[in-house]
Amino acid sequence: MKRAFVLFVVAMLYCNFSLAQEPEPETDPNLLWKTEDYYTRFLVHPNGNILAGKYSTEVELDGKTGEVIREFPYQLIIYDISPDGKYISALTDQRCVIDYETQEVVVRFTNENTYPKFMPDSKTLVYFVIEKIGALSGNLRLRSYNIDTKRYLTSEQKISNTTTGAISISPDGRFVATEGWYYKYDDEGVTHLLLWDAQTLEPIRVLGEFEYFNSINSIKFSPDSRLVGFVVSGHGLYMYNTDNFSLYKFYGSTYGVGFISNDFIAIGTYWNQLITFEIINLNDGKSIYKRNDFTGMPEYNIFNNTLIVNYAYLYCYDFEKILSGASVEPETPNPFTVECTNNTLSIRNYTFGANSINCTISDINGRVLSNINLNTSTNEIRIPIKLLNGTYFLHIKDGGKEYVAKFCVVN
Predict the structure, then answer these.
(1) pTM
(2) CA-CA distance, 34 to 36, in Å (whole number)?
(3) For residues 191 and 195, what is the distance between their CA atoms, to the nearest angstrom?
């Protein structure tokens, strides 16, 4: 009964959260678009588009505009997208694999009530299976299925008296993370945070334990697979190191989390009618962006360098603008131009007020590469610096004023 009550409370929480005050797009210069329709789930395709759904209807959205490109012609729920973008893990009449381009079902492979996720090879799916014990409890195992060979593999070791409802696979294909509702007796038990070996499908260890049955809102791995975060309903975000299995960081009152890179995470909070959304630098724990009128389930779109957030509707934020410091004030034209060629950064056409300015050069992950003071008495400022191909930011302090400019390096 307690498990049923917890799930009911979570459902009510989501309803209240979905109907809460919406952010005003015109007040945030970082917002690129918002969908006209609402959605309850979404995934980011490797090509930058968004697969979004509600009930048993799924659509594809243009990742740059949020406009609907196409609607799937039959009822389904999408669980995952293969890393190469060719296949979709979904539910129709059974759990199946769908061709992304043609929308045709490639193979149906299980009737289990589960959520298959793709391994890095884009051909193998891993999912949990529960051997029933009575009406509620069961024995938990992992199982894999290969699209090409049609071969199944099931873990030899089972976790007794345990069921689950969430699963995630690390980007490097080494780990599987699940929740585990362990039944001590009848409907009383605890919640386990479980880590498995993705190659053997055998359990590695219990990372964390919580009294009673708690819903896991999401499980996310960092891009380098070094960290895994569990959002435990009513408790917060517990982030563990996959090298030594220690608790790396804890954030309370978290509803949703998404890794932007190995250095930045986005966190949505909804607790006791208080909502916040922020982006945190994991290296120093500082927030680089925060709103107190917004929250949601975030996911980074690496193709477009944007952040997609599900808050009843889908919102798309420009991460470059957030990282460059445009999250507080609207953009104003910089009183200078910047260009990097032949290992030299040139600042021209400037109208600075001070005779000396401070310049900081950082990469897309916020790492400071150079910090220097410069004289503005010349017509052009030239800074020798050797950079790899990529996107960088120039941060200038001119007395009490600050400016940020993005520049690209193509050698």
Answers:
(1) 0.74
(2) 7
(3) 13
| Lookup: tokens for 136 | 């509620």
List helix spans (H) across 142-197: none
Burial label for 380, CB within 10 Å (0-12, 13-18, 19+), is exposed
Residues of 340-367 as b/e, b for ≥16 C-beta within 10 angstroms? Answer: beeeebebeebebeeeebebebbebebe
In DSSP terms, 78 is beta-bridged to 90
Selecting from 3.40.50.2300, 3.30.1240.10, 2.60.40.3080, 3.40.250.10, what CATH number does the domain 337-409 have?
2.60.40.3080
* Spatial distance between the Cα atoms of 113 and 95, rounded to a whole number of angstroms: 8
Report the alpha-carbon distance of residue 97 to residue 86 in Å, rounded: 10
Contact call for residues 180 and 167 (beta carbons, < 8 A): no
pLDDT digits (tens, 9 = 90+) for 284-317: 888 888 888 889 999 999 999 999 999 999 999 9
Confirm if 196 and 176 have CB atoms less than 8 A apart: yes
For residues 316, 321, 324, 325, the Cα torsion angle rounded to the nearest 10 degrees is -80
- Closest residue by Cα to residue 236 from 204, 264, 207, 271: 271
Q: How far apart are CA 113 and CA 161, in angstroms?
A: 17
Q: Is the CATH number of domain 2-323 1.20.1740.10? A: no
Domain ranges of the chain: 2-323, 337-409
